């Protein structure tokens, strides 16, 4: 390999290290915000479980899991099959949990 050639591993984000740093920071702040919102919605005030609260918390959890898988576990640079598999797993898991919480099958 010549000095002017660079090897690409496929894991780099467009825009270089500075852009990756900003992206990681923004996603990290979004994960913190989603955690705080989930905690505020969770009914820690003793009001009990409400379907809207449960759906909100499950939705936030699904989004957080996707962000962690996509960015911090490198799925963003993986092939379409891996990305599709991860999204399908995430949606399927949370749909199943939601159905069980809703009382199906009864």
Automatic annotation (TrEMBL):
Keyword Transmembrane found: yes
Keyword Secreted applies: no
Membrane spanning stretches: 23-42, 54-75, 87-104
Subcellular compartments: Cell membrane
Membrane topology: Multi-pass membrane protein
Keywords: Cell membrane, Membrane, Transmembrane, Transmembrane helix
InterPro entries noted in UniProt: Cyt_c_oxidase_su4_prok
Name under which the protein is recorded: Cytochrome c oxidase subunit IV
Lineage per the UniProt record: Bacteria, Pseudomonadati, Pseudomonadota, Alphaproteobacteria, Sphingomonadales
């Amino acid at each position: 390999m010549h000095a002017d050639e660079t090897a690409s591993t496929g894991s780099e984000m467009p825009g270089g290290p500075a852009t990756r740093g900003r992206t990681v920071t923004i996603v990290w702040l979004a994960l913190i915000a989603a955690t705080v919102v989930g905690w505020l919605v969770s009914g820690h005030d003793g009001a009990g479980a409400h379907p809207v609260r449960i759906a909100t918390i499950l939705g936030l959890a699904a989004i957080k899991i996707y962000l962690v898988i996509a960015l911090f576990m490198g799925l963003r640079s993986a092939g379409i099959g891996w990305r599709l598999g991860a999204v399908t797993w995430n949606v399927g898991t949370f749909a199943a949990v939601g159905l069980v919480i809703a009382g199906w099958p009864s």
